[in-house]
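Re: weekly structure request thread

Next one in the queue (385 aa):
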Amino acid sequence: MSDPAAAVGMDHPGPNLGQARRLVVKIGSALVVDGQAACPRVAWLDAIAADIAALRARGVEVIVVSSGAIALARQTLGLKRPSLRLEEKQAAAAVGQIRLAQAWSVALSTHGLVAAQLLLTPDDTEDRRRYLNARATLTTLLGLGCVPVINENDTIATAEIRFGDNDRLAARVAEMIQADQLVLLSDIDGLYTADPRLDPDARHIPVVATLTPEIEAMGGAPPPGYSSGGMRTKLLAAGIATRAGCAMAIALGSTTHPLQALASGAACTWFLPLPEGRSARKRWIAGSLQPAGRLLVDAGAARALAGGSSLLPAGVRAVEGSFERGDLVLVLSDQGRTLGRGLSAYGSGDAARIIGRRSDAIEAVLGWRGRDEMIHRDDLVLDAG
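Done, posted below.
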């Protein structure tokens, strides 16, 4: 068998946290909750809130995926057994989520930041319309300067549909909002060739260029003392993130200012994004869906699209077909030539009402404010030629 470490870009310096435009940070229960006192670790939360504030001051948008709701409610509800039934976890989440949200709100507000709470289930990232709604909400919150704090919606998720850990949830969120980087704060400073607590010859791997079967095999099963996810789910998260064009780091979270330490060069493992990751979603749009309708655009809009712009309602001359928000539609020139295809931000009925109008008139026409674009450029694939 080949040496796994030799095939993973050992000489690559890895990404830099300061390069991120949009960053997702996943934080486990053990970092957020004092296990003995069953209360938030206030000093640690204040320190990482300061790290987030420093990143925000540099223009980095930050989303937090935080565990801890169930751990915060165990003692209050007298649920002290190591293993809880699903309904007990759901009840604990309902109680603990209030305390978790409050802890984040207090920590972030101390540094002038506004926390926003979102609870997601796997269906929210799989169903296209719910996916678009969640993405739109997150994008709006970021635009308003908020720090979204996300957790799995344990109160309603069943055993069959749960993410089961927040590592994969964080990766799906990073994919959803097209984050540049995802950081999983852990109880270990990255990936090793073997468990360093058991094997003195285990070597730290600073950069993983490709998730080979040998690398994936290093995940194993979660050992005692780890979070519910363990290294295995972190590697699964790396697969999701890197395929979406997002770099991912596994870094030590127990230090007082973990993000500051990571930005300063602390040991970690970076998983490099696939070169084609950013185009993977557009290839899906281009080849995997049947168009539900058509949008005819004027010459000015056609030129703007060719230059990389989104399609605005002002440039649309006609709407054909019946479709819903998030459905695939063809974009045609006024001569009938297919220019491309994309996911419409409006259903056909609303689209027909706002065509030819400026984006700032949408609210007056529809009675509610939707997206400025009929099709955002991230949801648009142009035909070649």
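Residues 86-109 form the longest helix (24 residues). The chain has a mean pLDDT of 86.
Next request, please.
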